[in-house]
Predict the structure.
Amino acid sequence: MNAFTLKGQPSLVTGANSGIGYAVAKALAAAGAPVVVNYVADPPSAERVVDEIRTAGGEAMAIRADVSREDEVQAMFRKMFDAYGTIHILVNNAGLQRDARFVDMTLHDWEFVLSVNLTGQFLCAREAAREFLRRGVIPEVSCAAGKILCMSSVHEVIPWAGHVNYAASKGGVMLLMKSLAQELAPHRIRVNSLCPGAIRTPINTAAWSTPEALSGLLTLIPYGRIGEPEDIGRAAVWLASDASDYVNGTSLFIDGGMTLFPGFSTNG
Ligand code: NAD
């Protein structure tokens, strides 16, 4: 069997109507997975993703849910099981930023980011894990009972002034992922993180949309280019497939070397 195929493995990608989630949903579908395109706002954009996947010969459906709401997450999983029977791959991608100087950061800015970026990952991972445990391994489909991919960030290790809520949420995702991987490994459930560097998406338009901003950004990227959402899509397919079957509890940095301390490349 082709170790990269995701055939027969229903997948859920949160926040899949934009940016990285959109590219990941398309890549998983191209590898054969039926894909749920989760969105919280802008239904037409989710329907466009579904249409694109179907036009390319894949299978997809859109389901609205706010990942920070327990009732909505549970309802989303029920709809997915009604349609596809089960889940094999969860990509916990939904995330956002509410940036402010620390002293100006409101409790709402703090709680809002933590509720989507961290609690949202907890709620979705818990529903997926319950189903993986119930169903177990189906050897003809995959070596694993299920795979969870957490969308983290280089900011799970790089401190980020002016973004303490975001950095704290991604630091939290790192140990959520590792603790889950440890707990669920005996059940043949794999949990790993994708840690993008700077990727060209709407979340960080200000960092790449003018030549000045882009050249400042490139000083942080040894590989000399900004990342594209498809860079993350390809990595997601590998990490979700049996090709990475012995990889568990790992943060995979996809960052053009941003985490290599580029400030030291000319002797510090
Ligand atoms: P984006 O803004 O294009 O996409 C974020 C998606 O999450 C959107 O579809 C949005 O609607 C959705 N979302 C937000 N709140 C939600 C909620 N409560 N429920 C469901 N969906 C919700 O940004 P992106 O760059 O594609 O970000 C995707 C993920 O990648 C995020 O977790 C982000 O932290 C992470 N990331 C991005 C970069 C980057 O450079 N773009 C770098 C590192 C990590």
Q: What stands out?
A: The pocket of nicotinamide-adenine-dinucleotide is lined by residues 14-15, 17-21, 38-41, 66-68, 93-96, 116, 120, 151, 153, 196, 198-199, 201-204 (CB under 6 Å). Strands lie at 11-13, 35-39, 60-64, 89-92, 146-151, 189-196, 251-254. Helices lie at 19-30, 43-55, 70-84, 107-135, 164-184, 205-208, 211-218, 229-240. The mean pLDDT is 98.
